[in-house]
Design a protein that fits this description.
The chain has 18 helices and 7 strands. It folds into 2 domains: about 5-190, no CATH class; about 210-450, no CATH class. About 50% of the residues lie in helices and about 5% in strands. By secondary structure, the chain is an alpha/beta fold.
Length: about 550
C-alpha cells in the first residue's frame, strides 16, 4: 500500500473535491450568529478542508480494503463534469447565502443585508483551504516517513498504525503544547507586564474608602486596565438615591489585578484585607465575582444589582488572565478555577466566622468563563453546613460541569435551551423572557439562576454536534434561533465553533451579550431586595435601556 496515494491527483482528489464542495455549500447555511464575509470565508474554507479530508480518508479506506472499483483514475470527462457540477452547486448556495444570514439578523433586530461579497468570501475560503490542506499533506508525509523507517523492523501494516500514532502525537504535542499553551502563556505574561505600564487616563480615586486610592492596600496601577474601569465606573449613592427617591449608599467595589501580588493565594488574601478595610462585611449583601478571561466584569451584571440594593452592597473580584474567555476555554478550560477557589475560600472563611444574624448575605456571580470558574469555586460538602445564599451565572460555557449536568438531567418536556430542574427550589433558568416565576415552585435556602440565551454559542457549542443533532436545536426552538438552522454532521460543529469566536458581536440581548433588563429579573429572584414595585422595576429597566441607546 502506497501512502503517496493519499495526496495524488487521481480519483482521490475528485471525491475529496466533491465532498469539499458539499461542506462549503452547507457552511453557508445559518447557525446562531450573523456572519460577515470575512468570517464566512474562513468558516467555508475550514469546512471545505474538512470535507476534502473526509474524501481522502474514504478513498484510502476503500483502497486499503482492496476493493477494485476505485483503484483506477477517473477519466478526464468525469473530472471536468465534477468540477462543473461543483461550481454550479456553489453558485446556487452563494445566491441564497444572504437570505440565510437575514433569517438570523431579523431575529436579532438587525437590518437585512443585500448580498454577501462572493469574491471576498471565496478568496478567503481558498486561502484557508490551501493552508489547511498543506498541513494535512505535511501530516501524511510524517506518516509516510515513520512508516518507511518502522517497516525495517515490523510488518508494514503494524508500521503504518504505529507511524500514524507517532504523527498524531507529534502534531498534537506541537499544536497543543507549543503553539497554544506555551505561546499563549507568553502572550498572557507579556500582556500582564504591558498592562502595568498602560496609562488609560482613568483618574485615581481620591476617596480613602475605594480600591486604588492612596489609602488602599492595592495600588491604582496594580489593578490593570479592566480593574481600573471596574472601580471607576458604576453608580454612586447619589445617582441611586436620585432614582429611587430614597437614601442610598455608595456601593463598595474591590478588585485585585494580576500585578498586585506574585501568587494567586497572595492576591486572594490581599483582596480579603482590602474588602475588610472598606467595610464590605458591614453591607447587607456581598457578591464574589469571577471576571471573564480578560479580567472584565460586565457592568450590566453589577450595576443593576447595586441599584436594586440601593447601594447597600459590596462586591469583590480577582483577575486571573488577560486572554479572551473563548481562547482560554479552548486551550485551558480550568484557567481561572484556582483563582476563583482561592478568593471564595478567603471570603467565605472569614464570612462564616461572623454571627449569622449580623453578616451580609453572600452571593456568587460570573459571566462566561467567569460563570464556569465561579461554579468551581465552592465545594458543596464544604459549605452545606453554612451555605451561601445564591448565585447568578450568565452565559455559562458548554463545558461548565454543574450547568451541563443539570441540563442533561432536566425535567422531561422542558427544552435544553430553557430547562426546568426538579421542583425549581434551588436551580432555575431564564432568558430574554423572564421564566423564573414557575407556578407552584418555592425557593429553598439557596437560589441559583442561570441566565442564558438560546442564541449564545459559548453556552450551546457542543463537540458532539460533530456526529449528532444537539437537543437545543430540536423543536421547540429558542425564540432567537433561526428556523432555517439545520444540523449537518461535522459542518454544524464548525459553524458553532466560529460562532463562539464572534459571540460578542451580536446586539445586546442576543448571543453572548447580556442585557441589563434581563439581569434585573435574575437578580430580583436571587437576592429578593425589598421595596420594589412592578412599576419601579419597569422604570429601572427603562433607565438602563435608555443608557444603552445613548
Amino acid at each position: 500500500m502506497r501512502i503517496s496515494r493519499i495526496v495524488s491527483l487521481s480519483s482521490l482528489s475528485v471525491l475529496g473535491m466533491a465532498i469539499a464542495t458539499l461542506f462549503f455549500c452547507l457552511s453557508l447555511t445559518p447557525s446562531l450568529m450573523p456572519r460577515s464575509a470575512f468570517v464566512q470565508g474562513a468558516l467555508s474554507g475550514t469546512c471545505a478542508a474538512f470535507g476534502y479530508g473526509i474524501g481522502v480518508f474514504l478513498i484510502w479506506l476503500w483502497n486499503y480494503l482492496e476493493i477494485p472499483f476505485l483503484r483506477s483514475s477517473p477519466g478526464r470527462p468525469v473530472v471536468i463534469a465534477v468540477i462543473i457540477l461543483c461550481i454550479l452547486i456553489s453558485v446556487l448556495f452563494l445566491w441564497q447565502a444572504a437570505g440565510w444570514q437575514d433569517s438570523v439578523r431579523e431575529l436579532m433586530g438587525l437590518d437585512p443585508i443585500t448580498a454577501i461579497d462572493p469574491l471576498k468570501l471565496i478568496g478567503i475560503a481558498i486561502i484557508v483551504f490551501i493552508v489547511l490542506i498543506a498541513l494535512g499533506r505535511l501530516f501524511n508525509r510524517t506518516v509516510a516517513l515513520s512508516h518507511a523507517w518502522l517497516s525495517r523492523f515490523v510488518p508494514p501494516r503494524i508500521a503504518f498504525v504505529i507511524g500514524t500514532l507517532i504523527a498524531v502525537v507529534l502534531f498534537w504535542s506541537v499544536a497543543e503544547g507549543l503553539l497554544f499553551r506555551v505561546a499563549l502563556r507568553v502572550v498572557d505574561s507579556s500582556f500582564q507586564e504591558a498592562d502595568a505600564l498602560i496609562d488609560d487616563n482613568t483618574p485615581m480615586p481620591t476617596e480613602a474608602g475605594r480600591t486604588g486610592s492612596a489609602a488602599s492596600l492595592v495600588r491604582w496601577k496594580q489593578l490593570g486596565r479592566q480593574g481600573r474601569h471596574f472601580i471607576a465606573s458604576g453608580p454612586t449613592g447619589k445617582e441611586i438615591g436620585e432614582f429611587t427617591k430614597t437614601a442610598a449608599l455608595d456601593p463598595i467595589r474591590v478588585y485585585v489585578g494580576l500585578n498586585a501580588a506574585p501568587t494567586t493565594e497572595e492576591r486572594a488574601k490581599l483582596a480579603l484585607e482590602e474588602f475588610k478595610r472598606q467595610g464590605g462585611f458591614d453591607r447587607s449583601a456581598l457578591i464574589v465575582i469571577v471576571p471573564t478571561g480578560t479580567g472584565w466584569v460586565d457592568p450590566a451584571g453589577i450595576d443593576t444589582v447595586e441599584y436594586l440594593h440601593r447601594g447597600d452592597i459590596a462586591s469583590v473580584a480577582l483577575q486571573y488572565s488577560y486572554l479572551s474567555s473563548w481562547l482560554s476555554l479552548l486551550v485551558e478550560p480550568g484557567y481561572g478555577s484556582d483563582a476563583a477557589q482561592a478568593l471564595f475560600n478567603e471570603v467565605y472563611g472569614y464570612w462564616k466566622t461572623l454571627p449569622r444574624d449580623h453578616r451580609p448575605k453572600l452571593y456568587l456571580h460570573g459571566l462566561s468563563l467567569g460563570a464556569m470558574n465561579s461554579q468551581l469555586s465552592a465545594n458543596l460538602y464544604d459549605v452545606i453546613a453554612d451555605p451561601f445564599q445564591g448565585a447568578l451565572w450568565s452565559g455559562p460555557p458548554y463545558s461548565s460541569g454543574t450547568w451541563q449536568w443539570v441540563t442533561e438531567n432536566r425535567n422531561a418536556g422542558s427544552p435544553a435551551w430553557l430547562p426546568r430542574f426538579r421542583d425549581g427550589s434551588i436551580i432555575r433558568f431564564t432568558n430574554q423572557q423572564n421564566a423564573l416565576n414557575i407556578p407552584g415552585a418555592v425557593w429553598g435556602p439557596i437560589r441559583v439562576v442561570f441566565l442564558q440565551y438560546a442564541s449564545d454559542p459559548v453556552t450551546f457549542f457542543d463537540w458532539r454536534s460533530f456526529y449528532r443533532e444537539p437537543d437545543w436545536l430540536k423543536s421547540p426552538r429558542g425564540p432567537d434561533v433561526s428556523p432555517s438552522f439545520r444540523w449537518f454532521p461535522v459542518v454544524t460543529m464548525l459553524q458553532l465553533g466560529f460562532d463562539a469566536m464572534i459571540a460578542t458581536t451580536s446586539p445586546m440581548g442576543y448571543g453572548h451579550v447580556y442585557a441589563p433588563e434581563h439581569y434585573i429579573d435574575a437578580w430580583l429572584a436571587v437576592t429578593e431586595p425589598d421595596g420594589w414595585s412592578a412599576d419601579d422595576i419597569e422604570r429601572l429597566k427603562s433607565l438602563f435601556s435608555k443608557r444603552r441607546e445613548d
